[in-house]
Amino acid sequence: MDLIKQNRDCPVLYVVVPCYNEEEVLPETAKRMRAKLRGLIAEKKISPRSRIMFVNDGSRDRTWEMIETLAHADPLFAGVKLSRNRGHQNAVLAGLMTARGKCDCAISIDADLQDDINAIDGMVADFCAGSDIVYGVRSSRDTDTFFKRFTAEGYYHVMQRMGVELVFNHADYRLMSARALEALSSYREVNLFLRGIVPQIGYKTSTVTYARTERFAGESKYPLKKMLALAWDGITSFSLRPVSMLIGLGLLITGGSLIAGLVLLIIQLVTGSLTGTAAILFSIWLACGLILCGLGLTGEYIGKIYEEVKDRPRYFIEAVSLDPGIEKEDVSKAVPPSDEISESTQPEEQ
Ligand code: UDP
Ligand code: MG
């Protein structure tokens, strides 16, 4: 893979905004985002070729008509229309992949103005200072209901226990550089959980904190059912620990029943009064334990197949240190002796 060059001085920024039935907030969102980007362009912090890209995720209301009107009226706006509703994660990915190749960096942000657009300044500043991924992190959850806060924070802890790397209190408000977008494009999985994928990419990362407010207008498009589905996707796409837990439980039950069996045997030998019920119970527990172990073991292999099928990229090269005598253009073709590649650029042995 060629090393991607990205302009960190006055970069082209694409702001990707997924929209599903957002006609109520869209005019205000467009107005505020236009003011924000125009300001940044005037300050020469971003290029005049920057865009606000709305992704219509199969809305049933007038969202797409509004996006088209905006795009026709002002070149700052662009629109992408998905053929049908594919869900928030796919809409964000579609926008980012459309922006890929056209920009130096892209920011994904919800349409409902819950995420503070003033954090864009900090994200761009971090990008210019060398970060490839800048996570928008909520400083407070004061505006959330107790239920939402409790479930969201509990979820992060469960994910951590499961060994999944997540950024605490970060949703999908983030900046990604051109090369981070390129890296993201090599994840081909359909059970999309961007929050889990992005930390796997690597490169230099940083965070920008902001206070999350309430939805400006309209209703949440993320009912509990969709939230649970996303959470479940997160666990099952990134962790094989539930399967290992199955083996652990199986071993525990098998071990327990063997000890119980030993105790029963001693009772039988000493008193000769072992009841049939005890023997049957012992057999049932032992069989259950062994079956669980077998299921867990099979699961481990299925897990391995699952990982292979996902065909995730194994590494990304950040820099190559070469003999200065080699022409720059030849970098992608040159195969340097392994001792000339700095350690950090060596692909990890898998
Ligand atoms: N969204 C989407 N497709 C969907 C559901 C939601 O593109 O199927 C968008 C929605 O328009 C919004 C963002 O995803 O820009 C987040 O949705 P929402 O604000 O309703 O979620 P919440 O903040 O309540 O979790
Ligand atoms: Mg929202």
TrEMBL record:
* SUPFAM superfamilies registered for this protein in UniProt: Nucleotide-diphospho-sugar transferases (SSF53448)
Residues crossing the lipid bilayer are: 246-270, 276-297
Q: Which InterPro entries match?
A: Glyco_trans_2-like, Glycosyltransferase_2, Nucleotide-diphossugar_trans
Q: GO CC annotations? A: plasma membrane
Q: Which CDD domains match?
A: DPM1_like_bac (cd04187)
What are the residue boundaries of the Glycosyltransferase 2-like domain, all occurrences included?
A: 15-183
The membrane topology of this protein is:
Multi-pass membrane protein
Chief subcellular location equals membrane
> What segments bear the compositional bias annotation Acidic residues?
340-350
Segments of this protein annotated with the region Disordered = 328-350
Q: Does the keyword Membrane apply?
A: yes
Q: Which UniProt keywords apply?
A: Glycosyltransferase, Membrane, Transferase, Transmembrane, Transmembrane helix
Cite the GO molecular-function annotations of the record: glycosyltransferase activity
Q: Where in the cell is it found?
A: Membrane
- What is the name of this protein? Glycosyltransferase family 2 protein
The taxonomy runs: Bacteria, Bacillati, Bacillota, Clostridia, Eubacteriales
